[in-house]
């Protein structure tokens, strides 16, 4: 297991340019992917981007599942997105409280409005290009991690700073709210190989 230190907000590596992965079979890239998986799980997160472990590549992973902070009905496998590009955002938006391992080690949550649904293209861990259309918590975590590749923290998109809260308050009062659960529900997931 290779758990890496999670880079915290303010570190210039979170704002640095992220490089395109040119060789999908590069052993270093395979190690970064493994380290991301191990670090995401160890920190009880549902997604993580390479810059968060100090590796400035266009690469992130997602795995919506039950964690201490998230009580989800939807569980997904680990998905790897290499050189991702969002090709479509829905006009409809929704609000979900987000947290981040790079912001006070995941102990701060705030409301963020984002498009409800998106379509993204990327290369997977197997070296094949794919397209994914989705919504709910999967669409949300993709957008959150994609922002990391653009040097954007979720704190820059908080809808109302007066509603920032500690993790404990979020878990007690927001996590199981009707609004949070409804916005997190995954109803669209269409995966297509592009190879």
UniProtKB/TrEMBL annotation:
The record's listing under CDD domains reads:
Pep_deformylase (cd00487)
Example of a GO biological process term: translation
- What GO MF annotations does this protein's record show? metal ion binding; peptide deformylase activity
Cofactor(s) this protein requires:
Fe(2+)
Q: Would I find Iron among this entry's keywords?
A: yes
UniProtKB keywords: Hydrolase, Iron, Metal-binding, Protein biosynthesis
- Active site, per annotation: 145
Q: Tell me, in a sentence or two, what this protein's role is.
A: Removes the formyl group from the N-terminal Met of newly synthesized proteins. Requires at least a dipeptide for an efficient rate of reaction. N-terminal L-methionine is a prerequisite for activity but the enzyme has broad specificity at other positions.
Q: Which family does it belong to?
A: Belongs to the polypeptide deformylase family.
Q: What is this protein called?
A: Peptide deformylase
Source organism (scientific name): Candidatus Woesebacteria bacterium RIFCSPLOWO2_01_FULL_39_10b
The organism's taxonomic lineage, starting at the top: Bacteria, Candidatus Woeseibacteriota
């Amino acid at each position: 297991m290779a758990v890496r230190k999670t880079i915290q907000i303010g570190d210039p590596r979170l704002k640095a340019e992220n490089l395109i992965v040119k060789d999908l079979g590069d052993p270093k890239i395979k190690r970064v992917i493994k380290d991301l998986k191990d670090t995401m799980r160890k920190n009880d997160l549902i997604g993580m981007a390479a810059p968060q472990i100090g590796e400035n590549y266009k690469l992130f992973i997602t795995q919506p599942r039950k964690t201490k902070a998230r009580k989800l009905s939807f569980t997904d496998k680990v998905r790897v997105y290499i050189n991702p590009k969002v090709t479509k955002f829905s006009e409809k938006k929704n609000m979900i409280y987000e947290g981040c391992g790079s912001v006070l080690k995941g102990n701060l949550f705030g409301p963020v409005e984002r498009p409800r649904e998106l379509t993204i293209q990327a290369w997977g861990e197997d070296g094949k290009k794919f397209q994914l259309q989705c919504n709910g918590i999967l669409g949300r975590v993709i957008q959150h991690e994609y922002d990391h590749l653009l040097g954007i923290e979720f704190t820059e998109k908080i809808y109302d700073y007066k509603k920032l809260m500690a993790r404990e308050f979020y878990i007690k009062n927001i996590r199981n709210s009707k609004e949070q659960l409804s916005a997190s529900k995954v109803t669209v997931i269409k995966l297509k190989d592009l190879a």
